[in-house]
UniProtKB/TrEMBL annotation, chain A:
Keywords: ATP-binding, Nucleotide-binding, Transport. One of its GO terms (cellular component) is plasma membrane. GO terms for molecular function: ATP binding; ATP hydrolysis activity. It holds the Pfam family ABC_tran. InterPro entries: AAA+_ATPase (IPR003593), ABC_AA/LPS_Transport (IPR051120), ABC_transporter-like_ATP-bd (IPR003439), ABC_transporter-like_CS (IPR017871), BCA_ABC_TP_C (IPR032823), P-loop_NTPase (IPR027417). It comes from Stappia taiwanensis. Coiled coil: none annotated. Belongs to the ABC transporter superfamily. The keyword Transport applies. The lineage of its organism: Bacteria, Pseudomonadati, Pseudomonadota, Alphaproteobacteria, Hyphomicrobiales. This is ABC transporter ATP-binding protein. Residues 6-247 form the ABC transporter domain.
TrEMBL record, chain C:
Coiled coil: none annotated. It comes from Stappia taiwanensis. Signal peptide: none annotated. This is Branched-chain amino acid ABC transporter permease. It is found in: Cell membrane. The chain crosses the membrane at residues 45-63, 75-93, 99-116, 123-140, 172-196, 217-238, 258-283, 295-318.
TrEMBL record, chain D:
The keyword Membrane applies. Belongs to the binding-protein-dependent transport system permease family. LivHM subfamily. This is Branched-chain amino acid ABC transporter permease. InterPro entries: ABC_transp_permease, BCAA_transport_permease. It is a multi-pass membrane protein. The chain crosses the membrane at residues 12-32, 39-57, 63-85, 97-118, 138-162, 191-214, 226-256, 277-296. The keyword Transmembrane helix applies. It comes from Stappia taiwanensis. GO terms for cellular component: plasma membrane. GO terms for molecular function: transmembrane transporter activity.
Automatic annotation (TrEMBL), chain E:
Keywords: Amino-acid transport, ATP-binding, Nucleotide-binding, Transport. One of its GO terms (biological process) is L-amino acid transport. InterPro entries: AAA+_ATPase (IPR003593), ABC_transporter-like_ATP-bd (IPR003439), ABC_transporter-like_CS (IPR017871), BCAA_Transport_ATP-bd_LivF (IPR052156), P-loop_NTPase (IPR027417). The keyword Heme does not apply. It comes from Stappia taiwanensis. Residues 5-236 form the ABC transporter domain. Belongs to the ABC transporter superfamily. GO terms for molecular function: ATP binding; ATP hydrolysis activity; branched-chain amino acid transmembrane transporter activity. SMART domains: AAA. This is ABC transporter ATP-binding protein. CDD domains: ABC_TM1139_LivF_branched. Coiled coil: none annotated.
Length: 251, 365, 324, 307, 236
């Protein structure tokens, strides 16, 4: 078996009496799409926050790419190859869609203490950005300020930014939420295309997408992982059905 | 022939009242000369320095270069004075000060172009020091805002007071609440206090001094704290408090009686020493121009100015070699006049023909 | 909000470029025009305008681009001025000493106070920079050796290898203009660079920047230090123009005025800062000639600019061009 | 430093703190809760005092002046809101800075035109002009006790209003998302107008109450405005409780600093150096305090608003 | 059946960019209607214009026969429209409970009226988090709160813009069930949601939007039958 790219051991965090993540153990293997599903408020976003470094853990260790990153600040984890998208859209509203993605590309290239060249005329950045926008169907919106995109378009841009950092592991927090049917299909297609290239941790309530994409699924309920397994195993699990899926899994 | 005078005064912010008094006094002097100082049609360009030294400097340059004024006058605050001093005297423009009298200008940096009808900054503080010494106070607390003029004032006070200074309190500039300081005073039980708290600070202090019950118990000596600019606000609470001043409305001479009467008639409020100084400045210019026979011969005019050819509202007035006044200094007291207005009144003369402490450093004669 | 100078990818001179050329050409030609009209004062006055324009551009760099609203920016004006003034008091006049000292002092002060202040955001940042500004102010007022509150008169101007070129007003004028141009171009370059993009991005969402691997803090700090040094230069020039140094340069009122200049000119536009500084000072000068109570006019003017001109004066002028 | 002295100074500090809270109270509402940077708060405070002086001249009674001036301040607040502020709520903070800076200029000058530049005063009401002995040789005016009472009352009123009433909730909600509050059926404009008017009235109230112990002069609110912001920021923007505690702390630190900084400096420095350093430190103490608090707690002591 | 909401020739734009080009549709009392269409076609903009949150350039909005065109949005809400906005927009500085009660009202004396208790009963998760600040909620919890908040105004017409975004399947189903129940109680509802399948069984009529215009209207049965509409405008 290959070394997992990400391994969580005993990760936990509480807000007062509320245990948001309760001794979570989880791993993501290279190239795998590992979905985390669970009811609202189960702690999925919190978990992503902890992995990405936006939130501190109360305890436990997070190992990424062979390194213990538990204490590393978010931007260093990102530079090491951990990229996340946000459930509640986090884009730069005054920048155009192109500039949003170009900034991610710039970040990936390393330090930005460069005062001399005009970044708006940086062909490599602009073209790279346009390529990612194209992949997500936003090519025609490249010059539009991100703040005035429609909700669905913002969601797509959010994903484009994350992808542009070309991470080793992509943390996706509900990428399909708010996108229409067509766009969801496109996203599934894009992610399928990226499968194998990046490992992904996918949090999503759209079961169609989850079952289409995931290699393995973990189910988080009240901060605890109650099950991990292949999509089939999860679909069969009565416990999961009761806690989360309801009818939909069976469908 | 006409005369153009640039008059710089602080007319905005809380201390505006000082500048307004000074300006009103000056304009009254011009008006009484029929709008013609020394027989010349006089135009006074009043400019607000906003108490910003660098801004004042720009405005002075404008007066000198664009408006081509013949003379400059006014200036309330020392820091503004210091900022505009150099360009004025460098351009060899005659300046007749009507309030600020910082020590460098009286001493090392004195200039033949600079005259002032007010005082050297220390004078009134020195008078209170002398008064305290004469009154036999042994232990005193002195208090001033923590800025240069405050420190100068305490230095001036100490020049003639030889007793013990129990505590030197420097407060914040613009302080509102003095309970901490008053508590200290009450605890130390000095024979008297000396304070320098110009403007609104003085009003706050005087009111709170009375409210803390100190007014009757610990004698209150002051300078630039209790005068006609603050009395309208402190009213009864200030009555009986002492201050050092080179002028008071009740000084017994003809020029002064006429000045006070016509000032109150003209503006409807009681003049303070700032107004008196402004008025004297106009009168000085008037007298000197007459004596020199016009403004053309600058040397003659300067010589004439030096002789102070005018009736000062202070009576006895002459210039020292540094062009600062030699004058009498008094202890004055706040009183309520019959007409209900609050004014200061002379109590005793502390210095006769007082000479400032820095004249020795001035290499002019 | 305008979408930032320099973010267009076209190579044609933009409206901003044209406007900048007009503004600087006007500055360059002014002494000649003044000489023709026989008005020497306007040259002196414009020196002051340009000095404040430098300070305003430096503030605009951090405020407009990075949303770092420094309410203590006048401290650098004062620091630069005091560095020059105190050196002069000790007989050191040469620019080869004083300029590095000015830049170093301001840079250092900015680095230390910035490192602390940048832990906060928004109004908290405004207030913590105010706090440091006030500390500098009170320190200056208690410097009895250098005149304290009364200030410090300089009996000369900064020299270059023993020559005193600044003594000539026209030369001084062009030196200040060159400084303004230099600061403006530098600031523009910074804004348009990769560094500038990070700065502007951090203003919109720090979380987003961290998530792509950029920690905004060092960028912010660097910008803050650069701006502090630029303002220090303005302070050094101010000291030379006034030949006088005073704690009043550092008062919070002055910091407030700098903010007003930048906002009045138009947030996010460096040229706007120059326009803002100029309009503020010129209006003040003109209105105060009309009436002693000129603030009764100036106050409502500011309100009207806000109510009707989104994006300050440059916003008003450039309506339709860049603002939608 | 005797124990009594320390105790009295502590009391002085707390009392100054309450006065500061009183002055900051209106601003906590308009800036802290409604999130509108209102630099005009200081001039609103000033106008309260001036209106009271004018009303006193009319009625000859402190209480009459109080009532009339409060009504005047409310009217002024509503007028200002109508003309200026209502156009500013959804604007950038810096636009608010610029516009309210204009309001300051106008009103400071206006006051000078109407009432002149000389300082004025408002007599203390007879009812409250007595005093009690605090320490040998030092009296404590009853009026100051009344001020403490008024400060506590305003604190309680504000606290209840903001965190316990529906209007308070709506104002807090409207500060972050007025459009949404409107879309849920609340006339947020009218509510903001009333709250702003009330805030102005509170500022005026502080001005009126301060008038008998402090000077009434043009520009009297300018420095206090900064102090009010210091208090709010230390307390944590939007938190009434925070503002109250911060006011007490600021008052205490300032008073004790003034009371003891020079004496403490004298222990390590020569008297003349101590006289240089002590007062300078005392002057900047509250700024050092603010910088220190924000360094360790970047959103103040009791952060109420996040994001 | 009486007409509840009528939208006629509605046009609206953001700055210079026109987004709505004459939207027209109507909702009868007691009806459940959907707005469908791809991302960026103007569904949300239509709702904003109806609610008075952006000014319409042209067109009419009538509610119960009364014109609401140009009225401020609080008036429109008071007339009986309750909005669950896109992107939740809960109040971050209010607690969960405050979010619910701050704008709560029962203006028309609705019989089984929505109270705090009833909302909590419906979303037990909210009861657990009642003292938390709005911005401390998870995405899904925020969504529940937004729905609860709109219900607490006891509207005549409930408008849901992507109200099930980010909700877990179970909850989502419960919400559909709840809407069905509300419908049975006579509640009129306008829904925007990407879950076309669920909507087909719930809604009476569908309005398909493309580029700011209504391009198709019809019943669920018609929609089911018309594969070309589903394909062209909804990519289903
Ligand atoms: N604030 C705004 N400023 C400018 N344009 C905007 C703004 N909001 C939306 N738009 C534009 O208006 C168009 C319609 O947007 P709208 O939000 O109404 O679409 P939608 O149908 O609700 O899409 P979605 O399914 O993605 O929510 C889009 O092209 C969008 O970019
Ligand atoms: N700062 C906080 N303080 C208190 N509780 C919090 C805070 N942040 C989150 N929570 C709580 O932690 C729980 C987990 O939240 P989280 O956002 O991780 O859920 P989630 O699994 O992503 O849910 P969803 O599917 O709805 O997005 C929620 O119940 C939330 O209310
Ligand atoms: Mg989540
Ligand atoms: Mg939408």
């Amino acid at each position: 078996m290959t070394e997992p790219i990400l391994r969580l051991q005993d990760v936990h965090k509480a807000y007062g009496a509320l245990k948001v993540t309760d001794h979570v153990n989880l791993d993501v293997r290279p190239g795998e799409i590992h979905a985390v599903i669970g009811p609202n408020g189960a702690g999925k976003t919190t978990l992503i926050g902890q992995i990405s470094g936006a939130l501190a853990v109360d305890g436990g260790t997070i190992t990424f790419d062979g390194q213990d990153v538990t204490a590393k600040p978010m931007h260093l984890r990102a530079r090491a190859g951990l990229s996340r998208s946000f459930q509640i859209t986090e884009i730069l509203p005054e920048f155009t869609a192109r500039e949003n993605v170009a900034l991610a590309l710039q970040a990936r290239q390393g330090h930005s203490f460069r005062f001399i060249r005009n970044v708006a005329r940086d062909r490599a950045l602009n073209e790279g950005a346009e390529r990612w926008l194209g992949e997500l169907g936003l090519a025609h919106r490249a010059d539009t300020p991100a703040g005035i995109l429609s909700h669905g378009e913002k969601r797509a841009l959010e994903l484009a930014i994350s992808l542009a950092t070309e991470p080793k592991l992509l943390l996706l927090d509900e990428p399909m939420a708010g996108t229409g049917r067509e766009e969801t299909d496109r996203l599934v297609e894009v992610l399928t295309g990226l499968k194998g290239r990046y490992a992904m941790l996918l949090v999503e309530h759209d079961m169609g997408a989850v079952f289409a994409l995931a290699d393995r699924i973990s189910v988080l309920v009240y901060g605890r992982i109650i099950a991990t397994g292949t999509p089939e195993e999860i679909r069969e699990s009565a416990e999961v059905r009761e806690a989360y899926l309801g009818e939909e899994g069976a469908a | 022939e006409s005369l153009k005078i640039g008059f710089l005064a602080t007319l905005s912010g809380p201390p505006a009242v000082l500048g307004i008094q000074m300006r009103d006094g000056f304009l009254l002097g011009v008006k009484e000369a029929g709008g013609k100082l020394g027989g010349l049609d006089t135009e006074v360009l009043v400019v607000d320095d906003e108490l910003k030294p660098d801004g004042a400097l720009t405005k002075v340059r404008g007066l000198l270069e664009r408006d081509k004024v013949d003379m400059m006058a006014g200036v309330v605050f020392s820091n503004v004075m210091m900022a505009v001093y150099k360009p004025i005297v460098r351009s060899e423009t005659i300046f007749v000060g009507a309030n600020a009298g910082p020590s460098p200008i009286a001493g090392k940096a004195c200039s033949p172009y600079f005259f002032t009808t007010s005082y050297q900054n220390d004078q009134n503080h020195e008078a209170m020091g002398k008064h305290a010494e004469d009154a036999g106070y042994k232990r005193m607390i002195v208090m001033a805002p923590n800025y240069q003029a405050g420190k100068d004032s305490i230095a001036g006070f100490k020049r003639h007071f030889k007793g013990e200074i129990v505590d030197e309190i420097y407060t914040k500039l613009g302080q509102l609440d003095f309970s901490s300081e008053l508590t200290k005073i009450a605890a130390a039980k000095p024979d008297a206090v000396f304070v320098f708290m110009p403007g609104g600070m003085g009003v706050n202090l005087v009111k709170q001094y009375a409210q803390a019950g100190l007014a009757g118990n610990v004698p209150f000596l002051s300078a630039f704290t209790v005068d006609e600019t603050t009395l309208p606000a402190t009213k009864d609470t200030a009555v009986g408090l002492l201050a050092g001043a080179q002028w008071a409305p009740d000084l017994d001479n003809a020029a002064n009686k006429a000045f006070v009467a016509s000032f109150e008639e003209e503006y409807g409020y009681a003049p303070s020493l700032y107004a008196a100084q402004g008025y004297d400045a106009a009168r000085l210019i008037d007298g000197a121009l007459k004596k020199a026979g016009g403004k053309e011969d600058k040397a003659a005019l300067m010589a004439a100015l030096k002789e102070a050819p005018f009736e000062s509202v202070r009576g006895d007035f002459s210039f020292n070699t540094n062009h600062f006044p030699i004058q009498d200094v008094y202890v004055v007291k706040a009183v309520k006049r019959e007409d209900g207005k609050f004014v200061t009144q002379t109590v005793e003369k502390v210095f006769d023909d007082k000479v400032d402490a820095y004249v020795g450093e001035c290499r002019m004669n | 909000m305008t979408l930032m100078t320099g973010s267009t990818s076209s190579h044609r001179p933009s409206r901003t470029d044209l406007a900048a050329v007009v503004v600087f050409a006007a500055f360059a030609l002014l002494p000649a025009a003044a000489a023709a009209m026989g008005d020497t004062f306007i040259v002196f006055f414009t020196i002051r305008v340009m000095v404040f324009a430098i300070a305003a551009v430096s503030l605009s760099l951090i405020l407009g681009q990075g949303a770092m609203v420094s309410f203590g920016h006048a401290a650098y004006l004062g620091l630069g001025a005091y560095a020059v003034g105190i050196l002069a008091e000790h007989g050191i006049w040469d620019v080869t000493v004083s300029l590095p000292v000015v830049l170093l002092t301001c840079g250092l002060f900015a680095a230390i106070t910035g490192a602390i202040s940048l832990k906060t955001r928004g109004v908290y940042f405004i207030m913590i920079t105010l706090a440091f500004g006030q500390m500098a102010y009170y320190t200056a007022t208690s410097l009895s050796a250098y005149g304290g509150d009364d200030g410090l008169t300089m009996w000369g101007r900064t020299e270059v290898f023993g020559f005193a070129p600044l003594g000539d007003r026209t030369t001084f004028y062009y030196v200040v203009l060159a400084c303004l141009l230099g600061v403006y171009l530098l600031a523009r370059m910074i804004v348009a660079s990769r560094f500038g993009r990070v700065l502007k991005g951090a203003k919109q969402s720090e979380m987003r920047l961290r998530a792509v691997g950029i920690d905004p803090y060092p960028y912010r700090l660097a910008a803050y230090v650069i701006a502090g040094m630029m303002a220090g230069l303005a302070g050094a020039l101010l000291a030379n123009a006034a030949e006088f140094v005073s704690p009043a340069y550092m008062s919070w009122h002055r910091s407030g005025e700098l903010i007003v200049m930048v906002v009045l000119g138009g947030l996010g536009s460096l040229l706007g800062a120059i326009v803002g500084a100029a309009s503020f000072l010129v209006l003040e000068e003109l209105l105060s000639h009309i009436t002693e109570h000129w603030r009764l006019l100036f106050g409502p003017f500011l309100i009207l600019v806000v109510l009707f001109g989104r994006g300050g004066i440059t916003g008003l002028l450039g309506k339709g061009g860049r603002n939608d | 430093m005797s124990a009594t002295l320390l105790a009295v100074q502590t009391l002085n500090g707390l009392q100054l703190g309450i006065l500061l809270f009183l002055i900051a109270a209106g601003l906590t509402l308009v800036f802290g809760v409604m999130d509108c940077i209102n630099l005009a708060h200081g001039v609103q405070y000033m106008l309260g005092a001036y209106l009271a002086v004018a009303a006193y001249a009319l009625t000859g009674s402190f209480w009459g002046a109080l009532v009339l001036a409060l009504i005047g301040a409310l009217g002024l607040g509503l007028l200002l809101e109508l003309l200026v502020f209502r156009h500013l709520y959804d604007r950038d903070h810096l636009d608010q800075v610029l516009a309210t800076f204009g309001v300051i200029m106008f009103l400071n000058e206006g006051v000078k035109v109407v009432w002149g530049a000389a300082p004025l005063s408002l007599p203390m009401p007879d009812l409250l002009s007595g005093s009690i002995v605090l320490m040998d040789g030092l009296l404590y005016p009853v009026y100051r006790i009344a001020l403490i009472g008024a400060g506590l009352g305003v604190a309680l009123l504000l606290y209840v209003l903001v965190s316990r009433t529906r209007a308070g909730m709506l104002v807090r909600a409207g500060a972050t998302n007025p459009a949404m509050v409107g879309a849920l059926g609340v006339n947020i404009r009218r509510l903001f107008m009333l709250v702003f008017g009330f805030g102005t009235m509170l500022a005026g109230f502080a001005g009126i109450l301060a008038a008998p112990i402090l000077v009434v002069e043009p520009g009297m609110g300018d420095n206090l405005l900064i102090l009010a912001f210091v208090v709010i920021v230390i307390g944590g923007i939007g938190s009434i409780r925070g503002a109250f505690l911060a006011a007490l702390i600021v008052g205490l630190v300032d008073t004790l600093g003034r009371g003891f900084a020079t004496d403490i400096a004298k222990m390590v420095l020569s008297p003349s150096a101590a006289n240089d350093v002590g007062p300078a430190i005392a002057s900047m103490l509250i700024y050092v305090l603010m910088a220190g608090v924000l360094f360790f707690r970047p959103t103040g002591l009791f952060p109420a608003r996040s994001g | 059946m009486s007409v509840l909401l009528e939208v006629e020739g509605l046009e609206a734009s953001y700055g210079a960019a026109r987004v709505l080009f004459g939207m027209s549709f109507a909702i009868d009392a007691g009806e459940v209607v959907t707005l469908m269409g791809r991302n960026g076609m103007g569904k949300t903009t239509t709702i904003r214009a109806v609610m008075g949150m952006i000014a319409a350039d042209a067109g009419e909005v009538r509610f119960e026969g009364q014109s609401l065109t140009g009225a401020p949005s609080y008036r429109i809400a008071q007339a009986g429209l309750g909005l669950v906005p896109e992107g939740r927009q809960i109040f971050p500085t209010l607690t969960v409970e405050e979010n619910l009660v701050a704008t709560g009202a029962n203006r028309f004396g609705a019989a089984p009226c929505w109270t705090l208790e009833r909302v909590y009963g419906f979303f037990p998760r909210l009861r657990e988090r009642r003292a938390n600040m709005g911005n401390q909620l998870s995405g899904g919890e925020q969504q529940m709160l937004a729905i609860g908040r709109a219900l607490m105004t006891n509207p005549k017409l409930l408008i849901l813009d992507e109200a099930t975004e980010g909700l877990a399947p179970l909850i989502r189903r419960e919400i559909w069930e709840c809407l069905a129940r509300l419908k049975r109680e006579g509640q009129s509802i306008l829904v925007v949601d990407k879950n076309v399948d669920a909507l087909e069984s719930l809604a009476d009529r569908h309005v398909v939007v493309e580029k700011g215009r209504v391009v198709w209207t019809g019943s669920s049965a018609e929609l089911k039958a018309d594969a070309s509409v589903r394909e062209r405008y909804l990519s289903v």
